[in-house]
Amino acid sequence: MRLRHKPWAKEYMEAQEHVFIQHPDQLKGKWETEFGNDHPLFIEVGSGKGQFILGMANQHPDVNFIAIELFESVAVSIVQKLVESPMPNVRVLTVDAKHLTDYFEAGEVDRVYLNFSDPWPKTRHAKRRLTYKTFLATYEAILPKAGEIHFKTDNRGLFEYSLQSMSQYGMFFTDISLDLHVSEPEDNIRTEYEERFSALGQPIYRMEAVFRPKN
């Protein structure tokens, strides 16, 4: 999908400082202060236009959520929705997932969501996949012991790769679905891509993976 550039996005988001965090490095270890509570903190890496994370935030008001999206022209859609319908338990960051340890202390994040990530199908681009071992190490560094990753995709190749990558890293799986919508859980929040691909009859793959505590 071609990304439509929105030159006004940066200025607009910076004016919404109650939602968009311009300097997240200054909040490392202090996210409880930012939200004003000690609720669990869940992040979504690659939030797109925000349908999933906003749905989750509405469903779970007792959890704090951070939407992480690299591109301002995409993230601005989340910010606009939060301006129109405020949710005190959501913040938005435009940062690179490679640098999450710059913004979160060890154990500060309780769960990571990866939804419909770019599959980067060419072998030479494997290091860019969000389930490559270096990304897994980054998530592990900010999650507590036995921290969880919840993952959804329509791409079978990426799903199989992720199962292998996580298994080789030493993670184990608490839930795997090869066609999520066959018996869709009532509390499943669909992403924009999920609705699109499901309408085309494509299966949605999902897993929950847990890091093994290190001695």
Automatic annotation (TrEMBL):
Pathway: tRNA modification; N(7)-methylguanine-tRNA biosynthesis. Keywords: Methyltransferase, S-adenosyl-L-methionine, Transferase, tRNA processing. It holds the Pfam family Methyltransf_4. It catalyses: guanosine(46) in tRNA + S-adenosyl-L-methionine = N(7)-methylguanosine(46) in tRNA + S-adenosyl-L-homocysteine. InterPro entries: SAM-dependent_MTases_sf, tRNA_(Gua-N-7)_MeTrfase_Trmb, tRNA_methyltr_TrmB_bact. Substrate binds at residues 122, 154, 191-194. SUPFAM superfamilies: S-adenosyl-L-methionine-dependent methyltransferases. The keyword Cell membrane does not apply. It is an enzyme of class 2 (transferase). S-adenosyl-L-methionine binds at residues 44, 69, 96, 118. GO terms for molecular function: tRNA (guanine(46)-N7)-methyltransferase activity. Catalyzes the formation of N(7)-methylguanine at position 46 (m7G46) in tRNA. HAMAP family: tRNA_methyltr_TrmB. Belongs to the class I-like SAM-binding methyltransferase superfamily. TrmB family. This is tRNA (guanine-N(7)-)-methyltransferase.
